[in-house]
């Protein structure tokens, strides 16, 4: 299959160079049949490309028929508005099949057409167009689908074994589809909860996600940017977990969601971590393993993006990696996969010389990175995991003693970072409790400390300068209208004794629900009169009602509820995310290279290796 695609690409390139248009005379007659000149063309290219004449004739005829079909489709689209879509079906001999439709049908209608025409279960397929999942509720035109668009169909079985049986009952299939969709919804909800959680939280009691650089230390990121990055990395990890199980059909939508969220991050931020580059590799790899690279028009662009991102992140000659980690042996597996995919792309485009160059580069890296199982075993006897052993041996060029020292040192470094992070979170918790003891809510304390970079004195001033924070309340289960709140005469007298007017004293006590400490601090800070945002309205409703109602806590905005059932569902969603996040921060570098070895050998057999 790959060889035929290569030869067709070579023939197409020759036709383009010779400015030959097969759909026009003398190569196509009025009846759209092959013209007499085709025989001479077959002999010419058979000799030039060293292909037997029969194969050359068949491939040229295939190119000619497709060109005519495309031209007819273009004319038809201009006249009738009926678009031609190229449908790429999963694991079929003739995967690319044309389908005619107008662009004003909905995604659901298109899915129904495809399912009926190709005997697929409608609820068991997902459709990818322009690297996005098709929205079933919108029209094709609204989603930017155009004439001659490539439509990739994913079949959502959970294993190859189940796919081969093809005897599953309708109920079972619907159940699986529901499970997959529910799982994606739980993933989204769990990631949103984790993205909104505060950095002061203790991970031993409340799990949350942190962003670290290549040394393992946390990176300071603005809250909104952090949310986008957490969502992107979370979807990516979910996709990678599925790729490890070879469930590429289910993994791809997660990877495309990750790509969407990465695009919301700043370029400066993406240059700090290599995740975006790795994601581009994973997306192209997924398309390749699904045998649907033709559907990814910008595969070459994605690989170039990955290469540039690696260069900015690691340094032009990996100098940043060497400076940070002491070597770059572990990251070489990423370049192996990059070169391999670039070589495959060149081969499928008919560029044999470039294909040979990149696939040989990948082959040389494979030889360099292959691990002796005996060395992994020797390190395991010292108490190290196979993953630690593989990563360290690649970093140390196979030296067992150096690898053991590297693992030990890295374990100590990670333990020290964890101690420092725990101390930082412990201090933040203490500062929050200090502000709470002064009468401020936990939420107000969190916001103030975040905006003052943890400075307790400045946080105290920040709360006073932002009166809307004074309305934050950790216990709003039984709200009472402020004008109906009864405040004691004794409390009013205490504030009047401090020099405040009766009216201001009573109003402040109602706003702060009888808390004399908060009332006196606020009145003193604002010269004896509550600021406008805290004053009771004439009707007696709560101050800044709209503002207060919109200040939902992060957990609430992520969909929390007081219902125990909802809380249990959220816990399950979070735990499901955490299960897919690997313990080792370099898990993405721990490739066994078994798949890569097989693919390298396959494509080396296709190309003519130049003699030196």
Q: How would you describe this structure to a colleague?
A:
The protein is mostly helical. 58% of the residues lie in helices and 4% in strands. It is built from 26 helices and five strands. The protein has helices spanning 2-17, 37-49, 53-80, 107-117, 160-165, 170-196, 223-244, 248-262, 267-270, 275-289, 299-314, 319-325, 332-348, 352-369, 373-380, 386-395, 400-437, 442-451, 456-465, 489-497, 502-511, 516-525, 545-550, 554-557, 564-580, 594-604; strands at residues 82-88, 96-102, 125-129, 132-133, 150-155. Strands 2-1-5-3-4 form a five-stranded mixed β-sheet, with helices on both faces. A hairpin with a 7-residue loop joins strand 1 and strand 2. Helix 6 runs antiparallel to helix 7, helix 10 (275-289) packs antiparallel against helix 11 and helix 13 (332-348) runs parallel beside helix 26. The longest helix has 38 residues, at 400-437. It is globular and about 110 Å long.
Radius of gyration: 32 Å
Structural class: mainly alpha
Tell me the strand percentage band: under 5%
Oligomer: single chain
For the structure shown, list the relevant keywords.
5 strands, 612 residues, 5-stranded mixed sheet, single chain, mainly alpha, 26 helices
Produce a short descriptive summary.
This protein is mostly helical and 612 residues long. It has helices at 2-17, 37-49, 53-80, 107-117, 160-165, 170-196, 223-244, 248-262, 267-270, 275-289, 299-314, 319-325, 332-348, 352-369, 373-380, 386-395, 400-437, 442-451, 456-465, 489-497, 502-511, 516-525, 545-550, 554-557, 564-580, 594-604, and strands spanning 82-88, 96-102, 125-129, 132-133, 150-155.
């Amino acid at each position: 299959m790959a060889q035929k695609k290569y030869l067709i690409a070579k023939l197409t390139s020759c036709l383009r160079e010779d400015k030959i248009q097969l759909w026009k005379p003398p190569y196509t007659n009025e009846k759209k049949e092959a013209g007499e000149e085709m025989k001479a063309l077959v002999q010419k290219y058979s000799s030039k490309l060293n292909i037997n004449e029969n194969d050359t004739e068949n491939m040229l005829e295939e190119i000619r028929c497709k060109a005519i079909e495309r031209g007819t489709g273009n004319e038809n689209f201009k006249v009738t508005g009926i678009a031609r879509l190229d449908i790429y079906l999963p694991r079929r001999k003739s995967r690319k099949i044309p389908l005619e439709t107008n662009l004003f049908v909905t995604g659901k209608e298109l899915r129904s057409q495809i399912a009926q025409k190709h005997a697929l279960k409608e609820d068991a397929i997902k459709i990818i167009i322009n690297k996005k999942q098709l929205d079933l509720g919108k029209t094709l035109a609204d989603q930017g689908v155009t004439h001659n668009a490539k439509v990739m169909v994913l079949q959502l079985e959970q294993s190859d074994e189940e796919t081969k049986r093809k005897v599953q009952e309708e109920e079972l299939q619907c159940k699986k589809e529901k499970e997959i969709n529910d799982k994606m919804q739980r993933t989204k909800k769990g990631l949103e909860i984790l993205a909104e959680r505060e950095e002061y939280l203790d991970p031993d009691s409340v799990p949350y996600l942190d962003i670290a650089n290549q040394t393992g230390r946390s990176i300071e990121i603005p809250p909104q940017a952090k949310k986008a990055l957490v969502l992107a990395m979370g979807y990516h990890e979910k996709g990678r977990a599925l790729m490890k199980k070879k469930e590429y059909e289910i993994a791809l939508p997660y990877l495309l969601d990750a790509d969407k969220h990465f695009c919301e991050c700043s370029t400066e931020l993406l240059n700090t971590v290599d995740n975006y580059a790795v994601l581009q590799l994973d997306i192209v790899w997924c398309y390749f393993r699904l045998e649907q690279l033709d559907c990814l028009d910008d595969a070459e662009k994605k690989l170039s993006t990955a290469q540039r991102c690696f260069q900015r992140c690691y340094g032009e000659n990996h100098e940043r990696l060497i400076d940070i980690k002491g070597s770059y042996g572990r990251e070489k597996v990423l370049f192996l996969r990059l070169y391999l995919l670039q070589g495959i792309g060149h081969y499928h485009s008919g560029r044999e010389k470039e294909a040979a160059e990149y696939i040989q580069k990948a082959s040389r890296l494979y030889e360099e990175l292959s691990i002796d199982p005996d060395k992994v075993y020797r390190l395991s006897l010292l108490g190290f995991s196979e993953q630690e052993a593989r990563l360290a041996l690649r970093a140390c060029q196979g030296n067992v003693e150096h690898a053991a020292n590297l693992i030990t040192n890295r374990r100590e470094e990670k333990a020290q970072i964890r101690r420092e992070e725990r101390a930082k979170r412990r201090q933040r918790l203490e500062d929050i409790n200090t502000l709470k003891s002064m009468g401020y809510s936990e939420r107000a304390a969190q916001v103030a400390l975040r905006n003052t970079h943890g400075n307790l004195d400045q946080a105290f001033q920040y709360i006073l300068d932002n009166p809307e924070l004074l309305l934050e309340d950790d216990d709003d289960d039984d709200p009472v209208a402020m004008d109906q709140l009864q405040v004691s005469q004794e409390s009013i007298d205490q504030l009047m004794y401090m020099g405040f007017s009766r009216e201001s004293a009573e109003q402040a006590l109602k706003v702060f629900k009888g808390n004399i400490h908060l009332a006196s601090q606020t009145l003193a800070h604002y010269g004896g009169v509550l600021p406008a945002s805290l004053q009771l309205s004439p009707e007696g409703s709560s101050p800044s009602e709209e503002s207060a109602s919109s200040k939902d806590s992060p957990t609430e905005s992520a969909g929390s509820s007081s219902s125990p059932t909802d809380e249990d569902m959220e816990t399950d969603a979070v735990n499901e995310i955490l299960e897919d996040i690997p313990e080792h921060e370099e898990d993405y570098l721990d490739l066994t290279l078994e798949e890569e070895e097989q693919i390298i050998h396959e494509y080396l057999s296709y190309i003519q290796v130049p003699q030196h």
